[in-house]
Amino acid sequence: MSDRPNVLFLMADQMQARVLDPRHPCMTPNFDRLAARGVRFANAYTSNAICSPARAGLMTGLLPHNHGVLTVTHLVDDDQCCLRTEHPHWAQRLTDAGYLTGYFGKWHIERSNDLRRFGWQVDCGSDGDRMRPRMHAAHQAAGQAELKHARYYQTPGYAKSVFYGATNVPPEQRGMGIVATEALRFLEEASANSQPWCCFVSVSEPHDPFVASERALARYDVDAIELPRNLNDDLSGRPGIYRKAARVWQDMSRREHREAAACYYASITEIDEQFGRLLDRLEQSDQRDNTIVVLTADHGELLGAHGLYCKNFSASEEVYNIPLIVAGPGIASGMVSAARVGSHDLCPTLLELTGCDPIDVPDSRSFAAVLTDSRRQEASYTRGYAEYHGGRYILTQRIAWDGPWKFVFNGFDFDELYNLEQDPWEMQNLIDEPAYRGRVEQMMSYVWQRIRDTNDHSLLNSHYPILRIAPVGPLVLEEQ
Question: Using CA atoms, how far apart are residues 439 and 422, in angstroms rounded to an integer?
Answer without folding.
Answer: 15
